[in-house]
Amino acid sequence: MTQRTDPEPLRRLVVLRHAKSARPEGVTDHERPLAPRGARDAPAAGRVLADSGCLPGLALCSTALRARRTWELAAAQWGTPPPVRHDPRLYHAGVPELLAVIHEVPAEVETLLLVGHNPGLEDLVLTLAGEGLDDTLDRVRAKFPTSAVAVLSWRSARWRDLAPGSALLTSLTVPRGGKR
């Protein structure tokens, strides 16, 4: 009798660039708040994730105010938000730093949300995506705007196996909230 092995679990990395931020005079980059448009777009990003059934088991968020506020407004759209870790390594992080943080994620987390900044997030998506559905890769190459939500999928038992070119970019959405 042939022994059947189950495939590796499907993992999803959801990459959310912080919503549009303001640039008030005298405020440090780390403490920049969301602009009015950002305050409208962040909840729309949360609704997109809820509607797509792509809610995370864990969120990793930059410590910058605009990223934290994006997380809060997006997560408020869900019944029960997942645990969140605010990690200072995600602020101004490049691909090596972002991957190091992702590789630490426990194996029981199947869907991870990463909330951070460009150019690191755009570079991360382009580095990890070996392929993309439809025109998703071309769209990321053209622009990864504020509030953009990219979903990468692959099969693996561990997050530390995530490597350049190993994931499929399954979707790219740029949610926009309506005027209040």
The secondary-structure element order is: EHEHEHEHEHEE
What does the main sheet amount to? 7 strands, mixed
Helical content class: 25-40%
Mean pLDDT: 94
Broad shape: globular
Number of strands: 7
Q: Cα-atom Rg, whole angstroms?
A: 16 Å
Uncertain ranges: none
What topology, given as strand order, has the largest sheet?
3-2-4-1-6-7-5
Strand content: 15-25%
Structural class: alpha/beta
Oligomer designation: single chain
| Tally of DSSP helical segments | 5
Distance between the termini: 64 Å
Short key terms for the protein model shown above:
22% strand, globular, alpha/beta, 5 helices, 7-stranded mixed β-sheet, 180 residues
